Amino acid sequence: MHNLNIISRKAERKYCRIFGKVRYLNNEVDARILNLSTTGAAVEIRTPLYAASGSRVQILAEDLGTLHGIIRWSHNGRLGIQFDPNSNARAQVASYFRFFHKDVKPVLTR
């Protein structure tokens, strides 16, 4: 089989429903984290955030604290955010799963 240059996820993602905000420069929008791993998250935003792929953002959520990362994709009001590898994201996400997480099933919207 040929390598099609497909990059697979390095960490398992778990579905969740965490409400918070995404901050880009001086803009903040309400958000909901749809799935989460120690390396990144998929986030649904309620209003447009005018940031391109590669933009540095922060996710702010009560159960997680502040997570720093980079937008990897954006589509239909959703963002894929890869956490900074040198941040505390891995420990913060592990702590969330240990103390706060309850399993949820994905919900189709729209």
CATH superfamily placement: predicted glycosyltransferase like domains
Tell the overall outline: globular
The main sheet comes to:
6 strands, antiparallel, barrel
- Mean pLDDT across all residues, rounded? 84
SSE pattern, N- to C-terminal: EEEEEEH
Unreliable sequence segments: none
Q: What is the CATH topology assignment? A: Thrombin, subunit H
Total beta-strand segments: 6
Which structural class do you get from the secondary structure elements? Answer: mainly beta
The helix content is 10-25%
Q: State the CATH class.
A: Mainly Beta
Mind telling me which CATH architecture this is? Beta Barrel
Beta strand %: over 45%
Strands of the widest sheet, in order across it, are 1-2-3-6-5-4
Organism: Rhizobium azibense
Domain PilZ: 9-93
GO molecular function: cyclic-di-GMP binding
Pfam family, one: PilZ
Give an account of the 3D structure.
- The chain is mostly beta strands and 110 residues long.
- The chain has one domain (13-100): Beta Barrel (Thrombin, subunit H), CATH 2.40.10.
- It contains 1 helix and 6 strands; from the N terminus they run ββββββα.
- The chain has one helix at 89-99; strands at residues 14-24, 27-36, 40-45, 56-61, 65-75, 78-83.
- Strands 1-2-3-6-5-4 form a 6-stranded antiparallel β-barrel.
- A hairpin with a 3-residue loop joins strand 2 and strand 3 (40-45).
